[in-house]
Amino acid sequence: MNLVVAAYFVLAVVGVNDWPAFLGAGAGERSSESLPLTWSPTENIAWMTEIRGHGQSSPVVWGDHVFVTSVDGPEKDNFYTTCIDVREGKVLWQKTLVNSFPVANSYYVSRAAPTPMVDTERVISFFESGDCVVYDHGGGQLWSRSLGKDYGPFVAEFGLGASPCQTDSAMFVLLEHDGPSCLVALDKKTGETKWKVDRDPRRSWSSPAIVKVGDTQQILVSSAGTVDGYDPESGALLWSFDDVGGNTATSPIDCGEGRFLVGASPGRNGENAGSAAGSNGLMQIVREGDDWTLTRQWTAEKATPTWASPIIHNGLAYWVNRAGVVYCFDAETGDAIYTERMKESCWATPVGVGDRVYFFGKDGTVTVLAAGREYRVFAENESWTAETLPAEKPLAEESSEERRRGASMFSRPTLYGVAVTDDAFLLRVGNAVICVR
Asked: Cα dist. 123→8, 133, 134, 142, 183 in Å?
């Protein structure tokens, strides 16, 4: 079984083409026979569609529709939700939401970073300002709400980045920043708050996830010093684990049977090096009578992820960092299998399909590795050139030398995320979506 995407559906109806949320949560298995192995900027590119503004979110898919979010304006004035036909790349509709909390549009601050969600009835777009808007599949607005007004203001130097997760009836939003933080459950039909639980202030961009444990579901939050499990119905804290550090960017993925991987990074300046060193590894949620606990099954020695979340596929666990180093471990024992460096840095989370694992390089090179215990490169695919991508409008110059150095890294075209249909990869660049089929 492919364990890269969630092994259990949290939505009532999910089709073979659907990719409903961040990291494919709720999606089914994909076949390597129908997905491309090789491509180039001139071969197997079905379409490339320009998006208004810029977005760091991943695409989501429902049926024949792709949905993406973006932001535009000198103060991130407008948020956009765009619907694209998955077969032809034609923009079917685009809707605008005015930002409730304008802030300078900067390379250094998140820009439409949270990934939207979709189900059989609605498209849910959540933005780092706390603005949330819900449309039907035809673009009609169902409701909107400013969580920034209700639970903010948000004090975040680099902006918020967590994507929401969902069940059939509710969506869950993690609002973490330097001020009073919380996890909030909203009714998907009305936008009303079902419950809210407070959390300590912290700097983290990890997204919550739904995991199945036995015949129950839990909301899993791995974030900046703790891993916590919550009851989706009541918001009750079921368990908490604090022997962890540096888990500020990667998000947990349901690996089945209450298992998931923790990704922990030393940090930009090594501030979390000590606590992160022993934090990467496989975790297991266990029920003992009426009590829940979390145990660490094994530690991924020397693994140092950055933004890409670790995955399990075909019995092997993979971490990858921004230098392009892949760390592979036996998923049952934790034994190190190999450590190798690929051609390019990876920011997006890899995807395992059949006998392959796809690693999405920051600058557009997608490396396809053999899904096995031997490091073998099947293909290295360039997805664009400077000539094939639409040009972006430059933003205002940053105010300090440190921020200018950071801007030089973020100003280049970046492969932020991916969605996978039954026969195509949808690659998200800041102002475009590329369909590889």
From this structure: 21, 8, 6, 9, 21
pLDDT of residue 400: 77
The three-point CA angle 63-64-66 to 5° equals: 95
Place of tokens 């890294």: 409
DSSP, res 37: S
Which run of H or of E encompasses 406? helix 401-410
CA pair distance 288, 99, nearest whole angstrom:
46
> Letter for the amino acid at 417?
G
Q: Give me the long-range contacts of 93-97 (CB less than 8 A, separation at least 24).
A: 93/138, 93/139, 94/52, 95/133, 95/135, 95/139, 95/141, 97/125, 97/127, 97/131, 97/133, 97/144
SS3 for 149?
helix
Q: Is the pTM of this model over 0.85?
A: yes
For residue 98, how far is the Cα from the chain centroid? 24
Distance CA 185, CA 187 (A): 7
Show the CA angle centred on residue 192, arms to residues 15 and 218, nearest 5°: 55
Q: Which of 218, 191, 193, 205 is nearest to 157 (CA)?
A: 205
Q: Looking up tokens 């916590």, which residue turns up?
A: 228
Residue 192 DSSP SS3: coil
* Mean pLDDT, residues 204-216 taken together: 93
